[in-house]
Write a structure and sequence with these properties.
Keywords: Metal-binding, Oxidoreductase, Zinc. It is built from 11 helices and 17 strands. It has helices spanning 87-93, 143-146, 195-198, 204-214, 230-242, 256-262, 274-278, 296-300, 324-327, 341-353, 368-376; strands at 47-53, 62-68, 75-84, 110-117, 129-132, 135-137, 158-159, 178-182, 187-188, 222-226, 245-250, 266-269, 283-288, 303-311, 332-335, 360-363, 383-387. Helix 4 packs across helix 5 and helix 4 (204-214) crosses helix 10.
Length: 391
């Protein structure tokens, strides 16, 4: 991943908020430049809510309205307060992975407050602090779903946006003022987490927590995190809180001070070939958070016997490696995608218990397009979060 101008923050007028304590108060909202939103329709039927959408592939996002279904028997209507910007939002809004459904409202890092519940809802009440992550439904009956692995639903889960729901209607994400979600796919945000710093946990938090938990990061384990961006900074925080010895592997030492502040014990530049010699056979687990393809043979050389290199970043191009890099010392090259609903709640509770929130920069909705460009330049530390009061 090429280094960006992370210290060049004068390209936007938003006040920068770097929040590291999860219990810190929510950042104050920047003034909205968009016109005031009209009140939503009555809950008896479909409502149209203000949102920001990409009208076509690679088109700038613009203010619009999108439909939300009527609140059903087991549905929760959420007043969205904050929505994080994930790198995958950019991939999809620009149709980098193909088959995009437009107009598209991105956003799967959603934090808000329950405004209404259906008559059959038992888990939530009006006023509860809640979140929505990367999926809003699944078949719920396959082996994966019954095991709490809805992200690997054998019939395909329904993504929060850029998907079709069970009625064949497009799903629209969190760059909006409200969303309707089944209570089974709604998460409770603990009181110890401010909503603004909790929003990115619904993707960046669970995406890194799940492989760290699955591969048993903890005391006595040496964990390397490749890349220190939106995903990487959460991987460092979580691995450190789990008790692992944490090393950051980044192209340069530009973010070394940040890495150590976030909880890393060591920080190395991968642009220095000596790094790969010095760290050969050093790690039990490597979590790669970058979306650029890696020279996998070199990184596999950093693993101990039975070590694992797990990809949570999603390069657009195919990757290649020499199979002997796996066979020698019985190493594993794996991938991991978000987490199930039960594990996501576990992650939120873990983060609240350890005072972990994302480091964020709060922006207005009319700054989304510029924020996208800054993400591509790696010019954010470490997650943009939209104050949806400005939509």
């Amino acid at each position: 991943m090429s280094p960006g101008a992370a210290d060049s923050l004068d390209s936007m007028t938003a006040e920068t908020t770097h929040t590291t304590a999860a219990s810190a108060p929510a950042a104050s909202a920047p003034a909205a430049s968009a016109p005031a939103a009209s009140a939503p329709a009555a809950s008896a039927g479909v409502r149209h809510v203000p949102a920001y959408a990409a009208p076509a592939a690679s088109a700038p996002l613009e203010r619009t309205t999108v439909p939300r279904r009527a609140v059903g028997e087991h549905d929760v209507l959420i007043d969205i307060k904050y929505a994080g910007i994930c790198h995958s939002d950019i991939h999809q809004a620009r149709d980098g992975w193909g088959e995009g459904i437009f107009p598209m409202v991105p956003g799967h890092e959603i934090a808000g407050v329950v405004a209404e519940v259906g008559p059959g809802v038992t888990k939530f009440a009006v006023g509860d602090r809640v979140g929505v992550g990367c999926m809003v439904d699944s078949c719920r009956t396959c082996e994966a779903c019954e095991a709490g692995l809805e992200q690997y639903c054998e019939r395909g889960n329904i993504q929060t946006y850029n998907a079709l729901d069970k009625n064949g209607e497009p799903t629209y994400g969190g760059y909006a003022t409200q969303i309707v979600v089944d209570e089974a796919f709604t998460l409770r945000i603990p009181d110890g987490l401010s909503l603004d710093v909790a929003a990115p946990l619904l993707c960046a938090g669970i995406t890194t927590y799940s492989p760290l938990a699955h591969w048993n990061a903890g005391p006595g384990k040496k964990v390397a995190v490749v890349g220190l961006g939106g995903l990487g900074h959460m991987a460092v925080k979580i691995a450190h809180a789990m008790g692992a010895e944490v090393t950051v592997l980044s192209q340069s030492l530009r973010k070394k001070d940040d890495g150590l502040r976030l909880g890393a014990d060591h920080y190395y530049a991968t642009s220095d070939e000596a790094t790969f010699e010095q760290l050969a056979g050093a790690f039990d687990l490597i979590v790669s958070t970058v979306s650029a393809p890696l020279p996998f043979d070199k990184y596999l050389g950093l693993l101990r016997t039975d070590g694992a290199l797990v990809n949570v970043g999603a390069p657009e191009e195919p990757v290649s490696l020499n199979v002997f890099s796996l066979m020698l010392r019985r190493k594993t090259l794996a991938g991991s995608a978000i987490g199930g609903i039960r594990e996501t709640q576990e992650m939120l509770d873990f983060c609240a218990a350890h005072g972990l929130g994302a480091d964020i920069e709060l922006i207005r909705a009319d700054q989304i397009n510029e924020a996208y460009e800054r993400v591509l330049r790696s010019d954010v530390r470490y997650r943009f979060v939209i104050d949806t009061a400005t939509i």
